[in-house]
Amino acid sequence: MQFKINKVAIIHAKRAARKYLHNEFRDKLSQAKISVQLCALALLFAIIASLVIILFRLSLLWAEQYLLSDTHSISSTLSDWRSYLPLIGAALIWLLSLLGSKRYRRMGIAYVLHRFKLHYGKVPLQSAAGQFFQALIALMSNFSVGKEGPAIHLGAVSASVMAEKFSLPDNSVRIMCASGIAAGIAATFNAPLAAVLFVFEVIVREYKIHYFFPIMLSAICGAVSSQLVFGNVHEYELINVIRIPLDHYPILLIGGVVLGCVAALFNFSLLSVTAKGQHWPLFYRLLIAATITTLIGLVIPQALGSGDFAIHEAISDHPSLLFLLGLLLAKMLATVAAIGFGVPGGLIGPLYGIGALVGAILAILSSLLFPSISPYIGLYTVIGMTAMMGVCLSAPLAALVALLELTNDASIILPAMFITIPAFLVAYQGFNTSSIFLKQLDIMGLGYKVAPLNQGLQKKGVRVLMDRRFVIVNDDDELLLEVLKRAEGRPVLVRNGEGKIEMLRLEMQSFEDSTTLSRHPMPGLPDNATLNEAYEALAAKRSGEVYIYRDSPNNPNGQKVVGVISWANLVQEIRSGQI
Q1: pLDDT per residue over 19-64, tens digit each?
Q2: Statement to judge: residues 390 and 509 lie in one domain
Q3: In what order do the strands lie in the sheet with 501-508?
Q4: Does 103 share its domain with 23?
Q5: CB 377, CB 413: distance < 8 Å
Q6: Could you tell me if 369 and 325 are in contact, meaning their C-beta atoms sit under 8 angstroms apart?
């Protein structure tokens, strides 16, 4: 008998210990602080995100073996079936779009940014299959789109869906989403530091130390995964980069002005096409993009693809100036048509191609007046790529570090920084250019702006502030007053006959010296919500309380109340300076 009692006690003790550890774990994640738990989860989800991106890259490599898509085999003849790959790809993308719901057709970096800002980074799982296969087809079909678009979307989906499966607090889900994006970019380009900076400059758009370590760990995971499968490859390390003398910097200044003008023109063209075709049926948009891409491919096939063909021509021996000018126009037109009309894919690859061509053209023109510039065409190509990406995406630091990692040559740092400054000033002040992703969100009618107070409240979960010292009783009018007296200042909650939670209060009557027992309905929030949801629930009346619950299958009502947050506590937290 004694053994059985001890055994039962041990079981109860283990359950209590597990419950305590689970609650402590969730309490840690609800704080806006760096923790081992947060880093461990980010690393776990980054592994999953990296595997998805590796699968995507392997699928693309497998397809390219059969399509023979390289600068030597690509054809510009009417008789070659590969000349019509864009039309075939557009038809397949449209057919795939019909299989899924219209709710999940949105994809790409702008959409992920919208979900990150307004929905804690929760990207629907149903959108992942469409992004994976449609982007794969777009890249296989030689549309002028990049690989980072699907990498960012798939990385965000992988991490955020896993975070929701683990029922993490919403403030942690957002961090997991950012970490998945970093893993996706790093696994695509083998550029971990650039991935970290891109996430902070483009997605998060602010710097917080408790974001930094999970994102950095995820980027490391993505880069290591890429190196294990594809080797430690730096994509553009074959570009001949020579350190430029200081007396050439005035020419770089002029080049920066030109690059700023080209970047502004590209952004304006792309956004104009996006706005024009926004309300057209998807079939028509894809058909137009495929037709333009096919016609360009028949004339200048090097303008097709992500950007590698264009870069190859820019760094080739003795390139023709007229050919590079024609290729630049064709590449810009192909990219504007593809991205503007909704072909799934990213912008970084095409921007690299356009920037490389502009840099090479500037170098050739400058060498006509100053022959000593001829050996530095490779450097001009790289800094052109840096400036185009940095200006168009409003991510100068990420662009600089990306090319530093991709070329594995530190000599690009100073000239790239020098040329990016005038390019930014010309584009952003002279032509009123802004981040292309934010403009895309404006055109699509998707929000991304969050007030500073709400943004601060979103960084903390309700478990950080909730009062766990409460009393909850069932509806019994005869005992409520006695319970309230014995509560000793603790909140007293009543579950009424309908199963709803109410707050019990003693209120002083102004017209007579007596008190009245009153009951006030309370809104409820799940324990994975943030303080922002509590603020929005109470802000209208500037008073009251919300109860915090956790789903509990053992509870008859399906919910277990775990805490209470009052308006007074929220105001105190806001005024404390911690938000």
Answers
A1: 545 678 888 888 888 889 899 999 999 999 999 999 999 999 888 8
A2: no
A3: 471-474, 492-495, 501-508, 515-521
A4: no
A5: no
A6: no
| Bridging pattern class, strands 471-474 and 492-495 | parallel
Which domain CATH number covers 191?
1.10.3080.10
3-state secondary structure of 551: strand
Amino acid (1-letter code) at residue 393: L
List the one residue out of 381, 409, 385, 410 whose CA is nearest residue 399. 385
CA distances (Å), origin 500, targets 468, 470, 570: 19, 16, 23
Report pTM: 0.90
Question: In whole angstroms, what is the distance from residue 427 CA to residue 263 CA?
Answer: 7
pLDDT at 13: 53
Say if residue 25 is in the same domain as residue 37.
no
Closest by CA to 233, choosing from 64, 402, 406, is 406
Q: How far apart are CA 508 and CA 165, in angstroms?
A: 47
Phi and psi torsions of 544, nearest 5°: 100, -170
* One-letter identity of residue 233: V
For residues 174 and 303, state if they share a domain.
no
- The first and second tokens of residue 177, run together, are 């989403």
Half-sphere exposure of 229 (CA within 13 A, CB side): 20
247, 175, 255, 259: which is closest to 215 by C-alpha? 175
Closest CA to 347 of 392, 287, 387: 392
How far apart CA 499 and CA 496 sit, in angstroms, is 5
CB atoms within 10 A of CB 184: 33
Do 15 and 66 have their domain in common?
no
Q: Are residues 118 and 168 in the same domain?
A: yes
Do 410 and 513 share a domain, yes or no? no
Find all residues with CB under 8 Å of 539, minimum gap 6, and list them.
none
Question: Token pair for residue 106?
Answer: 């949105």
300 lies in which domain range?
246-444
Which residues lie below 8 Å from residue 133, measured CB to CB, with a gap of 6+? 96
Last residue of some domain: 208, 233, 258?
Answer: 233
| 91 token code pair | 């038809």
Which residues are CB-contacts of 74 (< 8 A; sequence separation ≥ 6)?
68, 82, 142, 297, 301, 302, 304, 309
Burial of 337-362, coded b for 16+ CB within 10 Å and e otherwise, reads bbbbbbbbbbbbbbbbbbbbbbbbbb
Please identify which residue in the block is written with the tokens 């806001």.
574
pLDDT at 491: 83
Quick: pLDDT tens for 51-99.
999 999 999 988 888 775 554 455 556 666 677 889 999 999 999 888 8
Contacts (Cβ under 8 Å, ≥6 apart) of 301: 74, 75, 76, 83, 309
Q: Is residue 345 located within the same domain as residue 331? A: yes
In a domain, 200, yes or no: yes
Contact 181, 112 (CB under 8 A): yes
Domain final residue, candidates 200, 233, 266: 233
pLDDT tens sequence across 203-246: 998 888 889 999 999 999 999 999 999 988 887 877 777 788 88
Domain for residue 348, yes or no? yes
Break the chain down into helix, strand, coil percent, rounded to 5: 65, 10, 25
